[in-house]
């Protein structure tokens, strides 16, 4: 009798242990033994979605992901199951949500606007009714300047609350606001810097306000100028062709006279040197030129001829053979006394 009782107790203990272990394994693996229907959904991006991920309606698990594959070369198709007793309308919306910050995802099903007819088993939800997961990299890059003002722990807490709030999880908005307040406190520590920035910006705006009339006038004149250019654009475009033709002809002309111009410039250099060497004589000639011009004018006023009286003459005549003569002449008349 004692042996029989002990055996019964052992068997009962083994059965309870096996059932508890099976229940624990089922709970951990999220296994379901109910009948399910299979559906598909097309997404633009399913990064992070894996076989076995949850399918939820209003946060309640109703199925799991069966397969993920490439669809139509640039899209992705996710096959999932939903409990048989759950009815999906044709307007069902499917969104990929973040399950946690380590990258796990799940499919969130919700009823959208449109047909209320039941989606047939094996049906495919089009990409127009699906939404990929939130791009946290893009989100956090936008917060990067603010995160630099926080330490690592504060960033992690704030990031977690942001993800939970945006994904409709159970995160507390009050907690999010408290971490935001922590961020604003750090910004408040830089109050002087921000104040100086605002003061400088105010000074700039005040200066602009003082010159409001001039600025308005400038903008109006600029608008008229642009309008004028727009009105004359045909003439301007036409003149460009003429300018191009003129440039080509001028280039040809300069090309033809370039040797002559080069020689003239060369000779002009020699003339300049000669004038510089005889600067005193040139200055004296320029000083006496008005007087001589006046006398020539008086002499020529008597008719179309000039009457000159020779007072002095000198020169140098080079004869053949290299010999030279220097004839001179001087008149003693009174008029030559000057």
Describe the global form: rod-shaped
Q: Helicity level, as a percent range?
A: 40-55%
Distance between the termini: 176 Å
Radius of gyration: 52 Å
The average pLDDT score comes to 80
What is the element string, with H for helices and E for strands?
HEEEEEEEEHHHHHHHHEEEE
The main β sheet shows up as: 8 strands, mixed
Question: Largest beta sheet: what is the strand line-up?
Answer: 7-1-4-3-2-6-5-8
Beta-strand share of residues: 15-25%
Give start-end ranges of low-pLDDT stretches: none
Number of helices: 9
* Structural class by sheet pairing and helices: alpha/beta
DSSP, total strands: 12
Short key terms for the protein model shown above:
12 strands, two-stranded antiparallel ribbon, eight-stranded mixed sheet, single chain, rod-shaped, 338 residues, alpha/beta
Structure in a nutshell:
This protein is α/β, with parallel strands linked by helices and about 350 residues long. It is built from 9 helices and 12 strands.
Task: Describe the protein.
With 338 residues, the chain is α/β, with parallel strands linked by helices. The chain contains nine helices and twelve strands. The chain has helices at 2-29, 136-142, 144-147, 152-166, 173-188, 191-210, 212-231, 233-277, 279-300, and strands spanning 36-43, 54-57, 60-71, 75-83, 92-98, 105-111, 124-125, 130-131, 312-314, 317-318, 324-325, 328-330. The strands form three sheets. Strands 7-1-4-3-2-6-5-8 form an eight-stranded mixed beta sheet, with no helix packed on it. The chain has a two-stranded antiparallel sheet with strand order 9-12. A hairpin with a 2-residue loop joins β2 and β3 (60-71). α4 packs across α5 (173-188). The longest helix is centred in the C-terminal third of the chain and has 45 residues, at 233-277. It is rod-shaped and about 180 Å long. It starts with a helix and ends in an 8-residue tail after the last strand. The model has no long low-confidence stretch (mean pLDDT 80).
């Amino acid at each position: 009798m004692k042996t029989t009782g002990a055996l019964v107790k052992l068997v009962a203990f083994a059965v309870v242990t096996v059932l508890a272990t099976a229940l624990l394994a089922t709970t951990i693996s999220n296994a379901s033994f109910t009948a399910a229907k299979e559906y598909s959904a097309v997404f633009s991006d399913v990064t992070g979605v894996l076989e076995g991920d949850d399918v939820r309606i209003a946060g309640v698990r109703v199925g799991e992901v069966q397969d993920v594959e490439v669809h139509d070369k640039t899209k992705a198709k996710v096959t999932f199951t939903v409990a048989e007793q759950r009815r999906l309308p044709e307007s069902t919306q499917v969104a990929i949500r973040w399950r946690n910050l380590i990258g796990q995802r799940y499919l969130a099903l919700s009823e959208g606007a449109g047909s209320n007819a039941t989606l047939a088993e094996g049906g495919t939800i089009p990409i127009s009714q699906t939404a990929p997961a939130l791009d946290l990299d893009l989100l956090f890059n936008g917060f990067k300047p603010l995160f630099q003002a926080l330490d690592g722990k504060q960033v992690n807490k704030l990031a977690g609350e942001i993800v939970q709030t945006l994904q409709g999880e159970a995160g507390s908005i009050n907690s999010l606001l408290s971490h935001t307040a922590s961020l604003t406190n750090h910004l408040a520590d830089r109050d002087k810097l921000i104040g100086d920035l605002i003061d400088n910006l105010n000074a700039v705006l005040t200066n602009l306000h003082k010159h409001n009339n001039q600025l308005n006038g400038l903008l109006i004149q600029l608008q008229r100028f642009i309008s004028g250019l727009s009105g004359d654009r045909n003439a301007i475009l036409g003149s460009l062709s003429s300018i191009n033709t003129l440039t080509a002809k001028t280039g040809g002309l300069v090309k033809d006279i370039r040797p002559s111009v080069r020689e003239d410039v060369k000779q002009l250099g020699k003339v300049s040197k000669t004038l510089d060497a005889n600067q005193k004589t040139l200055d004296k000639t320029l000083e006496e030129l008005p007087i001589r011009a006046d006398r020539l004018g008086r002499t020529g006023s008597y008719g179309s001829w000039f009457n000159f009286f020779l007072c002095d003459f000198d020169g140098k005549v080079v004869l053949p053979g290299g010999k030279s003569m220097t004839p001179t002449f001087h008149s003693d008349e009174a008029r030559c006394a000057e």
